[in-house]
Amino acid sequence: MLRCRFTPVNKKLVRRIPLLAVACATFLFLFNLVATMPVWGRPDALEDGVERLAKKAAALPHEPRMTLVWTNHAALSQQRVERLRATFAAQMEAAQVRFVQGESAPALRVAIEQTPSQIVFTATVTAAESTSVVIEEVARAAAGIDRSSGNSVRLEKELLCHQETKILSAALLPAGTDSEKRLAVLTEEALLIYGGGPGNWNLENSKVLPGPRQAQRSAHGQLIVAAQPNARVGILLPGRRCEADVTDQSVMACANLAAEWPSGRLLALPSCGTQAWWLRSDGVDWTEEGRLLLHSAGAGKEAVAAEVVFAGPVISISAGDHLGSATAVVRDLSSGNYEVYRVALACGN
Amino acid sequence: MRCTELRWRAAIRSLCCVVAVCSCEARPGMAAVRPQYGGVLRVELRAASANLNPAKWKAGSADFATNERLAELVFDRLVTLDNYGRFQPQLATEWSHDAAAKRWQFTLRQGVKFSDGTPLTPGDVVAALQPLLPRGTQVTATGGGIAIQSAAPAGDLLELLVSGRYFIYRDNGGGLLKGTGPFVLETVSASIREGDATNATGPPAQTQRLRFASNENCWSGRPFLDAVEVTLGVSPLKALLDLQLGKTDVGELSVETSLRAQQTNLRCWVSAPVTLYALRFSGNARGENEQRLREAMALSVDRGAMARVLLQKQAQAAGSFLPQWLSGYAFLFDAESNLERAKELRKMMAAGAPGAVQTLRISVDGGSELSKLIAERVVVDARAAGFTLQTVKGSARTQDGGFKGDAEVQLVAWRYTSLSPRAALEDMAVVRRATAESSVPAEPDARYAWERKMMDERTLLPLVAVPDFLAVDARVRNWAPAPWGEWRLADVWLEQGEGSNSTKDTVRKPSLRARP
Asked: Which residue has the higher pLDDT, B460 or B496?
């Protein structure tokens, strides 16, 4: 997907724009499908809950023709709520209840609510003198969390992966001869190397961080990756620097060294001219949404040339797969997950 | 194409040089978000005193909430609940239960030490939890963990353990409990607060100060703050003034002072509605007249106006015992007033029946300003339906947390202290005047039906649910409490180097409202 956008080198490709557009659109669609599916986590938990609710609701005294009034107050996306509604409707129709619209028919009201630990489904049927209620609960943790899904220099972001456990830093390793994407992920315990691509990352190698492990409230680390394909990855940790060969099973080597931490990432792209740009976060703390700002590299405070907003604080910025991109780790405040984004400089169309 | 490739390679070469030069330049604070260690967080709270022994807390009282917040500094729980509905390991790293959810197994985290350096053992957990858990629940030590066995299915055990009094501590005798939490209680001192603006004419108010120092060896890492200094017995107005003068960092406010704080651009935090104000009738509704009186009273009170006007949209009208954020089904209960029907019921009452002619007395629990305001509003609404009520002085609470008084109606404040809806309803037995201990069903439909049945008994008439209000100085960072009021001060840090009370961020985000 991104190659179509970033490397307008081969002029033959330009002549095949319609073909490429179709290919890109198809890939985009497939990628989106694949990228969205794991985010739903365990979709059956909520759907099972709705099915159980429908079975209970079908047992309530009801009319054969009803209107379905569906309300959602939980942190679920519209898309997911629609799927739940379809599941509920299908179950009810199997129980000989027909939902009609625009007719005067008694209402079957379904509400989705949220408590600190549960998603609560209620179905209410109001008859002449009484109201019947059935309720189902599904643990929020079991339901998984889903997400609502120019011209000059700009920043584009692409979600590479996400997980619940803390990620200190991540970097896309420069592609080697096999041109397969490889992602280095630094956690509090280990350096993990994944191969494959978004939605299909496979663990290829892992290296445990040596030395005694002491819990730190502000655990942080930074991956240092060379611009050229290289088997070695540097790791900055508080008070020490480590180096690991990501292609073999050797033990990581560390030395006590108080290195200076990079303040951001310098980006450049031929299609954006010879200008270099600083990519930095303007985050305040862990509770606020983060932004990555693009400043012209130079002395003094430059105006912000572009920005990209995230749903949570930016934890670290490391190397991308080429000089025009970076890899950012973000903690999504809506889901609590740690997310790895590829942030790329883009110019023109 | 060749030309483009050459330009691309040349650009890469030149950029490598630029990267090499520029990467030496480090600008602190511009990279990833990095918290700072150090500083003392100053907190001012309304409660006059605190007790850190969970076994002695009175369910439903406002003091319970203060005690719980302070205990969170010193003690840990087996598990916690994050804002995304996920149970997170704390002192327990793994847990499981049998098919009936009657037997739960918890594996304890290895290497955890109390603040005095002694290791945490399964025996400590058993000793802490056994007196706190409901009757019929047995806690036993197993290899490397504990097991909790209950007589009935306990599917909500985790919700129970993440809230309320279920902290893990060691009682060595002498009154001071040891914890494994991020802070250690260092000193407790009582002093006279001078220059209390809210108390200019009377004697100076007594205040209690507690200083919690950071636990350097905490299993979850040293907290960012060096210490937390808590001053108790501070009125909301005084706390607001102190915040504006930079004398405190976090202050507990009231409805009124919270609105004032928002107008002055102070950063305010509002919890979910965690305190229920309700009318409690004396005795059970035996006769038909008593039933009519209570129903008429329920229909006469305009809860919506109470929440919107009296409490200036800072509260929620309550039609049920549990609030919407806790049960998820509270919206099914009707909280609408119907004055005409209330008048009809009033006329149907026998002439000599209580409330028909003579004045009903309403006593106010705790005597807070908010309670008095709500009671006065009830009096006005009841008068519109033809009843005469008179507020009387005197606390409705006894020393042991029960209720007393011979007034026909009491206005009581009830603080929710459990995240388990079942446990929260069971806790309310004391305020509902439940004669026999009846167990609340675990299944949500049955629980809803049970709550509706209890509502129909009309011993307790919910009015409004009110949140907690806090104002927070702009230099306090990572301020992210749970919507139900858990503060999580271990992750809070203070922006150093600038004077307190800066307004640069308060303009960006003047008010934070918690959502469950």
From this structure: B460
What's the predicted TM-score (pTM) here? 0.74
For B73, the enclosing helix (H) or strand (E) is helix B62-74
**Same domain, yes or no, for A116 and A172?**
no
| B381 and B481 within one domain | no
Say how far apart CA B281 and CA B295 lie, in whole Å.
Answer: 11
Q: How far apart are CA B242 and CA B207, in angstroms?
A: 15
Cβ pair B31:A217 closer than 8 A: no
Residues in chain B: 516
Same domain as A338, residue A199: yes
Both structure tokens of B239: 């706390």
- Buried-state track B12-43, b at ≥16 Cβ within 10 A, e below 16: beebeeebeebeeeeeeebbbbbbbeebebbb
pLDDT of B101 higher than 90:
yes
More confident residue, A76 or B403: A76
Q: What pLDDT, on the 0 to 100 scale, is given for residue A42?
A: 45
CATH number assigned to the domain comprising residue B56: 3.40.190.10
Q: How confident is the model over B4-15, as pLDDT tens digits?
A: 454 555 545 544
Asked which of A88-102, B22-36, B136-150 is least confident by mean pLDDT, the reply is: B22-36
Same domain, B80 and B225: no
How far, rounded to the nearest angstrom, does the alpha carbon of residue B405 sit from its chain's CA centroid?
27
Instruction: Provide the shortest C-alpha distance from residue B26 to chain A (in Å).
Output: 5
Residue A2 lies in a domain: no
How would you class A78 by CB atoms within 10 Å of its CB: exposed for 0-12, middle for 13-18, buried for 19 or more? exposed
Closest C-alpha among B315, B318, B279 to residue B295: B279
Does residue B374 lie within any of the structural domains?
yes
Residues B502-515: tens digit of each pLDDT: 333 333 334 455 54
Residues A215 and A261 grouped into a single domain: yes
The alpha-carbon gap from B99 to the nearest alpha carbon of chain A, in Å, equals: 16
Q: Is B102 helix (H, G, I), strand (E, B) or coil?
A: coil
Amino acid identity, position A268? A
Contacts of B482 in chain A (CB under 8 A): 116
Contact B18 A268 (CB under 8 A): yes
Is residue A25 assigned to a domain?
no
Task: Show the domain range for A271.
Answer: 150-346
Chain B residues closer than 8 Å to A130 by CB: none
Is the CB of B477 inside 8 Å of chain A's CB atoms?
yes
Q: What is the residue range of B341's domain? A: 275-467
